Amino acid sequence: MADNKEKVEENKQENNSSYISAKESRKITKFNRKVTKKLEADRANAKKDPSLYTTKMKDENNVVEFDNVCTYFFTDVGVVKSVDGINFNIPKCSTVGVVGESGCGKSVTSLSLMQLLQRPSGQTVGGEIRFNLGDGTAYNIVNTPTAKMQEIRGNRISMIFQEPMTSLNPVFKIGMQVNEVLELHNPEMSKEQIKARTLEMLEMVGIANKEGVYEMYPHELSGGMRQRVMIAIALACSPELIIADEPTTALDVTIQAQILDLLAGLKNKINSSIMLITHDLGVVASMADYVVVMYAGRVIEKGTADDIFHHPAHPYTIGLMKSKPVVGKKVDSLYNIEGNVPNPVDMPDYCYFRDRCNMQCERCKAKVGEAGGDYPPEIKISDTHFVSCYRFFEEGEVIGYPKTVNAEELLK
Amino acid sequence: MSEVKDQMPFEGAEKDSENLLVVKNLKKYFPIKSSFFKMTVGNVKAVDGVSFAIKKGTTMGLVGESGCGKSTTGRTILRLQEKTDGEVYFDGQDIFKLSKEELRKLRPRIQIIFQDPYSSLSPRLPVGEIIAEAVREHGIVPKEELDDYVTRVMEACGLQEWHKNRYPHEFSGGQRQRICIARALALNPDFILCDEPVSALDVSIQAQIINLLRELQKEFGLTYLFISHDLSVVEHISDTVGVMYLGNMVEYAETEKIYSNPLHPYTTALFSAIPVPDPDYKMNRIVLQGNIPSPANPPSGCKFHTRCDKCMEICKNKAPEMMEVEPGHFCACHLYDKNVSEENKETKEN
């Protein structure tokens, strides 16, 4: 009987969350139009005044600092807070792995950094993304005008995408596509120099037949070779930061091993940092120095690879580690995290993971408004290891609650 | 005994009632037509002589790189496409000799779960109807009981009764895969072909689906053929594992044997490439050079010799046969053929 009641209630809840009346829908659309118009106007203003987008790094040893970044999507069903107050740094010459389930905001984080969000519906509404220019100043990418961004993109920050076939242009030769990046960012180079550099890049990424590949079209290459070309394009201008967005997900294990080896080797060669976005814990373990674990748009745990893999603190991280089958370890049944990620339009006020968590402490069970009822703060449990979980509230040092933006207030 | 097995490892296996599915020397070629006169100018040898047997109530894993013919093998076994050569026995009867009507009777017993839960469910049917459609068509239960039956099946797969009137787009990836499993299970099958059922899912959802598949196997005594490129998942779920390379089965053994002692150089390389979630783990990778060759124009001799680090002279000319190296551990490689390795030693000395 009790079961039945629960079921009915659940049913109701489901119905409420997915149903929007015509009136509500109109209201949402109107609000979205207003907000995005205002945000676009702000962005246009920033063009005239460089002081709006030049800042200083907190720590000169970082390439990029994410400081309470909020990226929201103004959709027809409401505001989706894809990235909601995240903090982490990418130090120079290191690899930072960003892990999480699909839809947790990994890719949106990287797109915010590149300013490649689908505007006007997708907007970075708060916080700062500081990119180190190397001369003591930094750009706040959130407000940087497009013209300045174009100087950075591909030149100082470049990106390797998941699906090499869709990111290479099928109607241009490989050589031309690599040349294009170099031509754009190095107008002083002659055609011969550019070709020489392209061939050098193709050789660097392990393409034996570089002269042949230079004249080929993308469809003539295999998946692994295409990904190598993508890497060559990304590395052509020796960027300070390479964003690798699931670089090996579409590839086979044996090809994945080749590409990971290549990336690790190249990183040391050109002294750049890598932001490695993936959902494969195995890939992260073999590549990353620092690991950031994201869940439902927030960073729930970050630390060195050793911290995360040997002393995971957040119940979600622990669950994630346990749920992956590992070769050589026999278990009868895999650990599974019950339930699903909360609805992104209607996030709860308390810890996002509370409803799926099996390690709740007294503080977690409190109601909203009481101590512990809110979203847990970031807590420092060792010099390098930070976690957002109330289980460490007493022993660790509280760094701060995530600063988020209320969408309604954006209009004021 | 062993001599006979050298040639045909699964000779007479279909007569053993323990084996639910026996595949013998299955071949599937896709013709390449020239644009002129529609002449066949060559064949893509997607599956080129694959043999194995699956015992009742067990799971066989089929692994390999993309393009090696895993899925084609699966589809040909179900007779979703016609074979080129070979035999497939399901519960003692040759699937390719059945008439249309007989095959239709057999269909409910063999089911399939597809890789992509987003494209394998009709967007225009509610979930209850997706599951009930085939049940009604095959008359598994009387009309009056259909509704209850669908509810029971859905509950077994972790779906709620009120999901029945919803459409697939309202569900997450993991739940859609549960619907696919429920659809297959509703027909009371003996055998389910799982074609990469968890590849499109997140790690935490993967675990849920794998556990569900295992629970259902225990409960209903199902037999699975589990196709996947994720070796750690295959190790977890399978009793026996077959490794495929370019249309051939290169190694076949029980899971423990193959994972603890991989024999074929390709299997060794494949296993060493699995990333381990431990930063201290020193990767002892054997990185295979080059790519998988085109199946339209495979290399002569052993198809793996172009990428093999233990390649011998004979490998380039003579294709190795599947042989039983240890009891129950089959491998197709000249390294383990006694006659060949001696000959090779001689050539090396020369």
Strand and helix map with partners:
The complex is a heterodimer of chains A (about 400) and B (about 350).
Chain A: H1 2-18, H2 22-46, E1 54-55, E2 62-75, E3 78-91, E4 95-99, H3 106-114, E5 122-132, E6 138-140, H4 146-152, E7 157-160, H5 164-167, H6 174-185, H7 191-204, H8 210-214, H9 223-235, E8 241-245, H10 253-270, E9 273-278, H11 281-287, E10 290-295, E11 298-304, H12 305-310, H13 315-323, E12 378-380, E13 386-387, E14 397-400
Parallel strand pairs in A: 4-9, 4-10, 7-8, 8-9
Antiparallel strand pairs in A: 1-6, 2-3, 2-5, 5-6, 10-11, 11-13, 12-13, 12-14
Helix pairs in contact in A: 6-7, 7-9, 9-10
Chain B: H1 2-7, E1 19-33, E2 40-55, E3 59-63, H2 70-77, E4 85-90, E5 93-94, H3 100-106, E6 110-113, H4 127-138, H5 146-156, H6 173-185, E7 191-195, H7 203-220, E8 223-227, H8 231-237, E9 240-245, E10 248-254, H9 255-260, H10 265-272, E11 323-326, E12 329-331, H11 338-349
Parallel strand pairs in B: 3-8, 3-9, 6-7, 7-8
Antiparallel strand pairs in B: 1-2, 1-4, 4-5, 9-10, 10-12, 11-12
Helix pairs in contact in B: 4-5, 4-6, 6-7
Structural overview:
The complex is a heterodimer of chains A (412) and B (350). Chain A has 412 residues and is of the alpha/beta class. Chain A has a domain at 22-156 and 237-326 and 358-407: P-loop containing nucleotide triphosphate hydrolases (Rossmann fold, 3-Layer(aba) Sandwich). In chain A, 35% of the residues lie in helices and 21% in strands. Chain A contains 13 helices and 14 strands. A nine-stranded mixed sheet of chain A has the order 7-8-9-4-10-11-13-12-14, sandwiched between helices. Chain A has a five-stranded antiparallel sheet with strand order 1-6-5-2-3. In chain A, strand 2 and strand 3 (78-91) form a beta hairpin. In chain A, helix 6 (174-185) crosses helix 7 (191-204). The model of chain A has no long low-confidence stretch (mean pLDDT 85). By secondary structure, chain B is α/β, with parallel strands linked by helices. Helices cover 31% and strands 22% of the residues of chain B. In chain B, the strands form two sheets. Chain B has an eight-stranded mixed sheet with strand order 6-7-8-3-9-10-12-11, with helices on both faces. Chain B has a four-stranded antiparallel sheet with strand order 2-1-4-5. In chain B, helix 4 (127-138) runs parallel beside helix 6 (173-185). Chain B starts with a helix and ends with a helix. Residues 1-7 and 345-350 of chain B have low confidence and may be disordered. At the A-B interface, helix 1, helix 9, helix 10, helix 11 and helix 12 of A face helix 7, helix 8 and helix 10 of B.
